[in-house]
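Side project, low priority. Logging it here so it doesn't get lost.
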Amino acid sequence: MEKFVTMDFPVEQIRLTPLMRDEEALAAIRAISPDAPTPEKIRQVYGDVYFPPAPADRPYLFASIVESVDGKISFTDDRHGEKIAGNNFRDPDGALADFWVLNMLRFYADGVIIGARTLHTNEVMWANCFDEELASLRTTQMGMKHYCPAHIVVSFDGTDLLFDHMLFDVDAPVVVATSPDGLEYVRAHCPWSFRALGPYTSAEEVDVDAVQAAAASGERIVLATGTGAVTDGLAMLKVLKYLGMERVMVESPSYMTYLMSIEAMDEMFMNYSTVFAAGQVGFGAFLHFGAEEHPHSDFLSIALHEKNFICTRQKMIYGLRRGAEK
C-alpha cells in the first residue's frame, strides 16, 4: 500500500448524527447480503452498512456525489468537485466526513467508474480507499481480490483520455471502457500495452471466455462496446461482471445519469453541502428526463454533520407512472 496516499479520519470529527433510517428496508437488505459484519469504524461513524447481491448480468451499482444545496457539483470559477464540500467554511470537518463517506464506499467496491474528463480537472487522483484502517480489511474481512478497487475509466470516443495521468500507473487493475471508435483511437495513441476486448455491440455478444482470460492475464484492459462512437452500457456492465466485479461504485456525475437512463443505477449516496454555487454545472446536466417519465428514489437513511452537511442513502426506483402503485 506504500504506493497510495492515506490519511487520518478521526471518528469524533466525522461522526454523523442519524436522522432517519428505513429499518424495514435495511433489514431486508441485510437478510440477503453476502457481506461480513459492518466494520466497527463504519458502525461508529455511519451505522450498519450492507448491500444486496449483484444481479446475474451486471454488478450492483451505487454512486457517490456531493452537491451544493442548489444542486451544483462545482463552482464555475473552480471545477474541482471537492470544493463543493471543501469550501463549506461553516463546517470544515463536514468536508472530511463527506470525503470519508466516499472512501467508505470505495472500501465496499470491486471497481470504481471514473469519467475521463474528470482526469482533466484532477491532476492528482486515485480511486483507492484513503482510510488505511478500512483498506486493510478489504482482503481479510471482505474477501476482495485487491486492497484497491479496479480503476474503470469511461470515455465515449477515447479522445479525452490522458494516457500519462497518474491513475494509469497504479498498483490496481485498470479498465478503459470506450466505443469501437475509441478503441481505434487508443490503439493509435496509447503509449502503454493493453489487452483489447470487443467490440461488443450488445450484451448478448460478450465473449465470456475472452473476458475471463483477460482477467487472468493481469494486463490493463481496453473494452469496446456499442457502435461507432456510441457505447453500450449494458454490454460494458456484463463484461465488468465477468471480470469478477460484483459491486461497482460510480464517481462520474454524467455517467450516473446515463446509468439511470438505462435503469442500471441501483443506489445513490448523495450528500448535500450547505453552500450555494449557482451557475450551470449541475448533476445530470447533459441528459434530461421527462416530467411524466423519470426515475424516483426512496431514502434508506439520512444523517447530519453539524448543521451543514446532509448525507443520504437512496434506493433508485424505475418505471413509475402517474397513478401507479408504490
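Brief comment: The chain has twelve helices and eleven strands.
Revisit when time allows.
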